Amino acid sequence: MNALDSAGLGRRYRARWGLRHVDLTIPEHAVVGLVGPNGAGKSTLLHLATGLISPTEGALRVLGKAPGSREALSDVAFVAQDAPLPRRMRVRDVVTLAQDMNVRWDADAVESRIDSLRLDRGHRIGELSGGQRAQLALALALAKQPRLLLLDEPVASLDPLARRGFLQALMAAVAEGGLTVVFSTHLLDDLERICDHLVVLGQGTLALTGSIDDIVARHAVLVGPAGRPLPRGATVIGGNGHGGHQHLVSITAPILDPGWEQLTPSLEEVVLAHLQIHSGNKPRTPAHRLEVA
Amino acid sequence: MILLRIDPSSGVATYLQLVHQVRQAIQLGVLGEGDQLPTIKEVVAELAINPNTVLKAYRELEHEGLCSGRPGVGTFVTHSLAPPSQEVQIRLRSELEGWVRHAVEAGLDTETMVGLLRSVASDSGIEEVA
């Protein structure tokens, strides 16, 4: 079974489409980075998956169930942007409240996480640092023992140390097994060490998706003499930072032309190239859009 | 127990960085036969990386015959890699000196020589070590 499955998924806000034509398959137990600039549709997709909003068109299944249904909700946990917990409530009361609202609850896990964070249970949420609040929200989300954890920009507002602490806790939870994580971010630098799958959105549509290993294998940096026609199966998607005789290409067949040296691109440059194309800008090497040999 | 680390700016895939560090530790004798590698949970909690990445690195080390996993226990070093003997090192070095002389005569700079060495090593199926 897949954690997320969508076909032709779209959501319109008045006159504007927030998300459209999204066909997605996310396998269970994946750690998925949901990437794109602000306004690309990341939150819309997460809100659709939780059932907070409904699709305007197309279909979406979460763990094989309808998003927002009772069966789906018991297996899905969602932490909204900036971990919005009631600011005036005390830590211990928030924990009790969350426990009362959930059928399945691992109370020991929450308590030991709060202990290891050295949180004072008598403190009000508003007195916690951003990192502490994010960690507490994560602990509460994990306590319901979800099979799918959705996080909207969990680390965007955290300082580097808090961010690292949060990701350590998140990855430790993944290591326990049985959990699929989808988290949105507009930061690209941690992707490769945290995620194994990517969903890249640009202007409300899907720019790129797949396992990171596959995505990297489907791209190459080709180095060869200027003016040489590109080999069969290679399409230029960018050339920034590579000079005139280097091209970032997507490949649909093995590159056999020995005149081109093939290097592995970084995930970051592949994602940026696809985002650039999706923003309507052409790759910046028009002179090398040569047809196949 | 060795401490693994990650250099995010190196451009080398995370799992390969782990593989290289363990392999190097075995080559240098820091890790010997029977030594246990850190558990996946320990690595993940320390480095904040995807557990599947650690799993992939350990599988690769098993595939190379350097380690073996015992389900529920951990991953252990099964092989020790002795560095080449001094005799062999001296011979390799003197052979290389001859080659470098030819290369300099042909106008190659150090960077090009290293590039050539990499390319030959990779053509002969040896994995590139960063």
Descriptive keywords:
heterodimer, A: 293 residues, Rossmann fold, 2 domains, 9 helices, 13 strands, disordered C terminus, B: 130 residues, mainly alpha, Arc Repressor Mutant, subunit A, two-stranded antiparallel ribbon, 5 helices, elongated
Describe the structure.
- The complex is a heterodimer of chains A (293) and B (130).
- Helix content of chain A is 29%, strand content 28%.
- By secondary structure, chain A is of the alpha/beta class.
- Chain A folds into 2 domains: 2-211, 3-Layer(aba) Sandwich (Rossmann fold), CATH 3.40.50; 218-288, no CATH class.
- Chain A has a 6-stranded mixed sheet, sandwiched between helices.
- In chain A, strand 8 and strand 9 form a beta hairpin.
- The two termini of chain A are 43 Å apart.
- The model of chain A is unreliable at 284-293 (pLDDT under 50).
- Chain B has 2 domains: 14-77, Orthogonal Bundle (Arc Repressor Mutant, subunit A), CATH 1.10.10; 86-123.
- Helix content of chain B is 53%, strand content 6%.
- Chain B is built from 5 helices and 2 strands; from the N terminus they run H-H-H-E-E-H-H.
- The chains are: A alpha/beta (293), B mainly alpha (130).
- Chain A binds chain B through residues 31, 164, 167-168, 170-172, 174-175, 189-190, 192-196, 261, 264, 266, and chain B through 6, 8, 11, 13-14, 40-41, 44-53, 119.
CATH architecture of the largest domain in chain A: 3-Layer(aba) Sandwich
Q: Beta-strand level of the residues of chain A, as a percent range?
A: 25-35%
Rg of chain A, Å, rounded:
22 Å
Through-space gap between termini of chain A: 43 Å
Question: Do you know the CATH architecture of the largest domain in chain B?
Answer: Orthogonal Bundle
Shape of chain A: elongated
H/E element sequence of chain B: HHHEEHH
Overall tally of structural domains of chain A: 2
Whole-number count of domains of chain B: 2
Shape designation of chain B: elongated
Structural class of chain A: alpha/beta
Counting H and I runs of at least 4 residues, what is the number of helices of chain B?
A: 5
How many extended strands of chain B? 2
